[in-house]
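pinging the channel bc i need a second pair of eyes. not urgent but kinda urgent?? the chain im working w is below, pasted from the shared doc
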Amino acid sequence: MPIFVAILIAALTFGGAVSIKDHAYASWGGDALFKNEQDAQSNTAVRAARRDLANKLSVQEDQIKIIMVEAHDWPNACLALENTGEYCAQVIIPGYSVVLRYGGAQYRYRSNIDGSVLRIESAPSATPTKSFGILKGSMSIGPVCPVERIGEPCTPTPEMYAAHKAIVYRPDHKSVIAIITPDANGKFSLHLNPGEYWVDMQRQTIGSSVGLPTKIEIEPRQTVILAIHIDTGIR
């Protein structure tokens, strides 16, 4: 039976830590979801969030700036922002985390994939760029093949990365904050409110996780780095 071994190393980076503002604007283009802010405006979920905020503030949509858009898998139908006594179906909802700004205030929305479900995560702040910290890192998986032949490299597929999700919990280790799904290259990044969290691997039907859960602490404008390795047990 293959054994999945996940080794999680969390370290705060001091000194040249990436600020939320710098990270947000640097996220356009490259491996980001959108090339630029104009490109992001075409997304239905982003449009829905801008429209909702514009209605709440009684302003024009073009007055609201898009600061950041991240893809997220939310752990329930309430996008992990359930109200007291509210029933939320326990299903994974693909969607987005959208940060908008109007004037000196910043607003963070959660949405499903098409924006038909929206929830506001954070209240306006006088210093919005200092409100969040960053959790980022990469996942490695191996060995993938019993024998690796010259010219036939055995590398993890995007499907393999997607099948190995990590979960971010509140300190009670019960309330799910976010589900981390690595991209096709095994990388991941998300913004979290300052505080303590537990990170654990989603349980597999075969094998077991070793070395988890692990506690991390998110601080404003600091980055926590996670290096996750999955040992498939293939020999």
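so The mean pLDDT is 76. and The chain is about 15% helix and 35% strand. — does that match what u expected or am i reading it wrong
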